[in-house]
Design goal:
Layout (H helix, E strand, L loop, with lengths): L1 H22 L12 E5 L19 H12 L7 E5 L2 H5 L8 E2 L7 H4 L3 E2 L4 E2 L2 E5 L10 H5 L4 E3 L4 H9 L6 E3 L2 H9 L5 E5 H11 L4 E5 L10 E2 L2 E2 L5 H14 L2 H12 L8
Parallel strand pairs: 1-2, 1-3, 7-8
Antiparallel strand pairs: 4-12, 5-11, 6-9, 6-10
Helix pairs in contact: 2-9, 2-10
């Protein structure tokens, strides 16, 4: 009886220690032990954070943050939010956050100064149309008949010609500024942008324009990959990458993306 009890006690202790170890990958790796300090923009915008209130967990990046925190063993109350400007966080040196999440594209140049997590989002290509084409259906068949514009040096040209295959040749422009002007003046019907850019242009820059559809994120050519930004050499990166891998594998990341970047924005996936 003593032997059985002893074995059971040892087994229970081992299980408990394993659970603790598994739930505390981040132990000793955060600014404040037991807390996860996360930075976002000042202010933070729709649809990444709703109503500039990341602590609500509402909005794509706010929801991703809390999902990652939970996967790493933190409760919601353990997450502490701070603010930073976009450019400030990319500068070398010590940080006042464990990671910063505000649509940072992972680039080789930035990666020389700071560290990035594995991507939590690959920005899909989206279709932005001018005032005269806002009723266009989000189907490949409907898109073919539009008058397109594109930047000759951008990867969107490849997407346009290989996948959409418009019935007329697109007009090529030097840069996005010229494309934006052409859309606003109804010289062209549509152009391809990454989804965040398309949403911004429609909301702020091109009056009467609309984002009518987006391609699946795993079907995007040249889409930016967003990563959580960390101080160079931060060992927390391994924990975050493991959490993101788990969330991708179990479908959580895809579900969050569907909720906040498809349903909430009202931008359907192109069929």
């Amino acid at each position: 009886m003593f032997k059985k009890t002893t074995i059971l006690a040892v087994f229970t202790a081992l299980m408990a220690s394993t659970a603790i170890a598994g739930g505390h990958c981040a132990s000793g790796k955060t600014l404040t032990e037991g807390k996860l300090t996360v930075a976002t923009g000042n202010p933070a915008y729709f649809p990444w954070v709703m109503d500039d209130a990341p602590e609500s967990g509402q909005g794509f990046e706010a929801a991703v943050t809390y999902a990652v925190a939970k996967e790493m063993g933190f409760s919601e109350s353990d997450v502490v939010w701070v603010r930073s400007s976009f450019d400030e966080a990319i500068q070398p040196g010590a940080k006042n956050f464990d990671f910063n999440i505000q649509q940072y594209s992972i680039t080789a140049e930035r990666d020389e100064i700071v560290d990035f997590s594995a991507p939590y989002f690959t920005s899909p290509m989206a279709v932005l149309v001018g005032p005269g084409a806002v009723d266009t259906a989000a189907t490949m068949a409907a898109l073919k008949g539009l008058k397109w514009g594109a930047s000759g040096s951008h990867t969107s040209v490849q997407k346009l010609m290989n996948d959409i295959r418009p019935t007329s040749d697109p007009l090529l422009y030097a840069d996005n500024a010229d494309i934006n002007a052409a859309i606003g003046a109804n010289q062209i019907d549509a152009a391809l942008f990454d989804l965040p850019t398309a949403l911004f242009l429609s909301a702020v820059m091109i009056e009467g324009s609309k984002v009518i559809g987006q391609f699946p994120s795993d079907d995007s050519q040249g889409g930016d990959q967003f990563g959580m930004l960390l101080e160079e050499g931060n060992t927390l990166k391994t924990c975050i990458d493991e959490a993101l891998a788990a969330l991708k594998a179990n479908g959580t990341l895809a579900a969050i993306e569907a909720t906040w970047l498809q349903d909430t924005t009202g931008v359907p996936v192109i069929q």
